[in-house]
Amino acid sequence: MSQLPDKRTVRKVLRRLEHMYGPRQWESWGPAVDVLVETILSQNTSRANSQAGYKQLKRRFRSWSSAADAPVEEVEQCIRISGLSALKAPRIQAILRQIRAERGSISLEFLKDMDPRTAYDYLRAFRGVGAKTASCVLLFSFRMPLFPVDTHIVRIAQRLDWVDDRTTADQTQDLLTPLIAPDDRYALHVLLIAHGRQTCKAQSPRCEWCDLLDLCPEGQRRMAE
Asked: Nearest 5 degrees, angle CA 105-CA 107-CA 110?
């Protein structure tokens, strides 16, 4: 039976990940619209593929307004490498057009003057923007204290037995966020993703090299086998 960690255990995990990969200080990942589009492209695909699609999109269109007004087939072609392009292209264009219609230009910088909950709810109202995407925009662009959860973080939380294997990413985000000090949320997010990519991999995790082994029932089971 899984059990949520206490705040002290979460802090211990953060310190050990910092020992493994080095500390992480917050830095801006760019304007909020850029982060929003790139995060939508990252849905259900690899980081390499989403970045490739984003770069092609930026090379093809000199502004987000140009991308919003282009034939959807052109946008789809640019982002095809990112997967689900027939779904993502019209969604991205619809979001860009809606922002422009509401605000007069395609910018989300006004969100920095909102409280995190209001800004989060604004982004969630767009079709195709889930909890992770909205949280990424606000955390990476404005340093708002949210904790986005992706597949790497869900996998690690399950192996640590913090949540069970039926718990979704959105549920994991809701459960873990209150247990993480606001100033630690950025660092823990990026360090858990680094851990998931380099050590706690989906296939063949490197449990023998993991500083979290004594806290991880799944790792201990694998080592015993």
From this structure: 110
Let me know if 132 is a catalytic residue.
Answer: yes
Q: What are the contacts of 98-102 at 24+ separation with CB within 8 A?
A: 98/126, 99/33, 100/65, 100/68
What single DSSP character describes residue 137?
H
- Catalytic option among 12, 55, 88, 132: 132
The reply to whether the predicted model has a pTM over 0.90 is: yes
Backbone angles phi, psi at 148, to 5 degrees: -65, 145
In the chain, the amino acid numbered 225 is: E
3-state secondary structure of 166: coil
CA 165 distance to own-chain centroid: 19
Query: What is the per-residue burial (b if ≥16 Cβ within 10 Å, else e) of 17-26?
Result: beeeeeebee
Residue 1 confidence (pLDDT) above 80: no
Distance of alpha carbon 221 from alpha carbon 58, whole angstroms: 46
45, 120 contact by CB (below 8 A): no
Eight-state DSSP code of residue 63 = S
- The fraction of the chain above a pLDDT of 90, given in percent, is 96
For residue 66, which amino acid is it? S
Find the mean pLDDT for residues 196-202: 96
Give the C-alpha separation, 12 to 200, whole Å.
Answer: 17
